Task: inverse folding
């Protein structure tokens, strides 16, 4: 599935898919660098030097993304993080907490939850599908199923009228 997303992104670049991936990577780097770098600077560096796969050339991605979506996600994630983490934690089983989750998986859940809260113009099914697909690029089916389950619960909580199984 990893190759499918990368292939889809390379062949027919879906601006929102790439945007979500860049937002997750920006947030990942923000925590990787222990919050010592400004998230806006990290985002700009990613956009200027993006690499979809080891075989691709480094190239700027400014024209291949939804700049408005990326700005909304990266501008609001830090301020809403306590609420976002609280929501995620609510659906974790007792033996789990945010610190035990793999770093990339946590950033996927955070960004998806933020988008569920803010992007009311994007259907829930689209948001869930996009972030589950991104998770599938990094993890095995067990963790992808875990991501899907948490996201479905977050969707039911954040957008109960829209979520239909």
Result:
């Amino acid at each position: 599935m990893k190759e499918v997303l990368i292939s889809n992104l390379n062949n027919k670049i879906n601006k929102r898919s790439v945007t979500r991936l860049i937002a997750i990577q920006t947030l990942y780097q923000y925590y990787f660098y222990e919050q010592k770098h400004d998230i806006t600077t990290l985002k700009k560096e990613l956009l200027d030097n993006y690499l979809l796969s080891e075989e691709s050339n480094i190239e700027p991605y400014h024209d291949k993304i939804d700049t408005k979506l990326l700005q909304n996600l990266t501008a609001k994630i830090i301020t809403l993080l306590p609420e976002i983490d609280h929501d995620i934690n609510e659906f974790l089983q007792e033996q789990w907490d945010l610190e035990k989750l793999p770093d990339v998986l946590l950033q996927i859940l955070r960004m998806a939850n933020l988008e569920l809260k803010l992007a009311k113009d994007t259907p829930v099914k689209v948001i869930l599908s996009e972030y589950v697909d991104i998770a599938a690029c990094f993890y095995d089916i067990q963790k992808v199923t875990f991501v899907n389950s948490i996201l479905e619960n977050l969707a039911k909580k954040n957008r109960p009228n829209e979520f239909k199984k």
